[in-house]
Amino acid sequence: MVLLSMTASHHELDMSTLELLSTGAASVGRAAVETCEAITGAVVVATCNRFEVYLDVDSPVDGRGVQHASHEVARLVAAASGVSEDVAVGAFSTRTGPDVAAHLFEVAAGLDSMVVGEREIAGQVKRALEEAREGGATSSTLELLFQTASRTSKRISNETTLGGNGRSVVSLGLDLASAELPPWRQVRTVLIGTGSYAGASLAALRARGCEDVRVYSGSGRAEQFAADRGAVAVTDLVTALEDADLVVSCSGARGRVLAGGAPRVTEPGAGGDQVPAEGDELPADRDALLGGGDALGHVLDAAAVVRARSRAAEAAGDEAPHRPMVVLDLALHRDVDPRVADLDGVLLYDLASLKAHSPALGSLVVGQARRIVDRATQDFEETRLGRAADTAVVELLDDADRRIAAEVAERVAGRRAAGTEVDEAEAEALTRSVRRRVHADLHDAIVAARASALAVAQAEAEAVVADAEAALRGAGTSGSDVEVCAGR
């Protein structure tokens, strides 16, 4: 059995390429299990920072099997996203061995995020496992891997200050926007979206003292979302924009159309990580379709902003100063037309620009977190490899139970042959006495058997990793960005 993962992230790719690859993220894991006999489990982690596929690969347990599985996933990604297979293969980066666990544990802890230390990714990792489980696509090894990742993230949260200041893409965006805005209690905000990410954005706005928040959604969910949170729902986006100081857009309503015309839509989850749609579906302006109806256009285009600002200028009169506007586009599949940034008096921050402004975190707290990750990685590998050792220990214990039963039966039979009756209480006492002696003698044998089995498992794992690395290099992927993490 081989544990394998493929990762594309903001470290290696521009946001537009990552956006394309993640278009069909929701379908890749289950499709991999259904279409490739060697893949027995799959979990997909798709966020605004990354697109990762973790796989459990059955025989052949060698480099060729790893190579086949990785290329099969690249083919599925290409088919789902519309890019070529060469682009899909070249979009991922590679790791092998214990780095599979180490990488996922770092991701879950926020150590590999656009904003280092953000906490929302932990929930996304947990939900990724739940979705794979609901779709029947996970495996026992992947369950162990992801559950350990969640426990490691929680431990880092409890034992370090990493993420203690509410670090997230949302908070970073609002921090940058604040330099161009009035005091927060005076800021008039339009929030586009009704998913969990929109909920997190509204909470962050309220925490800063912003009370004037109007919610827009092309799906019709704005009214209930706003009522539940004490905000105001609007149905006319252009009118709402006329006096807006800040626009926060996180509907994620752009996406491709599936066969049969049904839209496939995703909306970011709380704090900056993409999950299957919980909010908007189609934007109200269906005239925004691009590419011959193949994809949805921007939820907020430049023309809408121009119309809104023109109306505001007319209403205010020629002498009135033009109100500046800050637009935060927090959706992976850009909600906002990039041409909005070219408009006079409008400042646009999207994920790419937020990435460029992401602050570094102090080395001390990062070092503390990484030490916890290292320990968790070692424990995970010992647990995973220890399953083979446990088999050897179980065999010894089973043999000991057989010997105990045989000895007790022989001694009871001997006493009865001598004319001494043995009742149930005496038989149980005799069994306990024999078990203590046999198990005491067995301790050294168990320690030796476990150590031997662990050594064999470790050697096999190292051989598989070396074989996988050689196969992937031979396939011409070593210089590309394909990430394949493999272990035995």
Automatic annotation (TrEMBL):
Site (Important for activity): 103
Top class in the EC scheme: oxidoreductase
A Pfam family recorded for this sequence: GlutR_N
Family: Belongs to the glutamyl-tRNA reductase family.
HAMAP family: Glu_tRNA_reductase (MF_00087)
Main function: Catalyzes the NADPH-dependent reduction of glutamyl-tRNA(Glu) to glutamate 1-semialdehyde (GSA).
NCBIfam families in the record: PRK00045.3-4
Protein name per UniProt: Glutamyl-tRNA reductase
Native species: Oerskovia merdavium
Annotated gene: hemA
